[in-house]
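Reply to dn_fold:

You asked what the input looked like. This is it:
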Amino acid sequence: MNSDGAADSDQAIIERVRRGDINAFADLLTRYRAWVFAIVLKHVPPNRADEMAHDIFVEAYKALPTYRGTAEFRHWLAGIAVRQCFTFWRRVSRQPVCCVLNDLSDETQTWLDRSSRTESQEIFDRQTSRQAARELLAYALERLSAEDRTLVTLLHMEERPVREVAQLMAWSPINVKVRAYRARQRMRRIIGQLLKHEEEPRRETQ
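and this is what came back:
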């Protein structure tokens, strides 16, 4: 902060860090902690959010020499946050399908059983509860690659524009569109397989 009490600009703080004032980076951390934390909470489990936010600022500090000021610092930082989140999912071992099925709520299990017997899309849609939809979405997301999981979250759950998602993920807009289409197709297949999994035991008991 300046001697007159006015807050330094992001660029001014960055220049201080580059000149060797390492402690100045704490000003950026204080300024953007809540911003980064809000991003992280949308992409990783809440109990890992603090750890992830810390890792993001560590990566931002290390990458600071590459910041050219062509975009707002907070957008540059958001890109690092998003990429760190899908790096997190790369490291997370995936839970076996049987275990995930057991973790679904009774309401979702019931909905799956009903939906597996429903041929009409209109009836199918009416039977879909919000809780069941959320759990099935989470189930499908967990089976996407780390990058595709983050892409779907940004593009469809957070409803960010394609161009912004491309900047955050360091991809071209065309790549975002193609990957998003393939990810949606993959999610449809995953949920379809889940419905089939629920249908088979029911047939065996008949």
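The domain at 1-92 is CATH 1.10.1740.10 (Rna Polymerase Sigma Factor; Chain: A).
Hope that clears it up.
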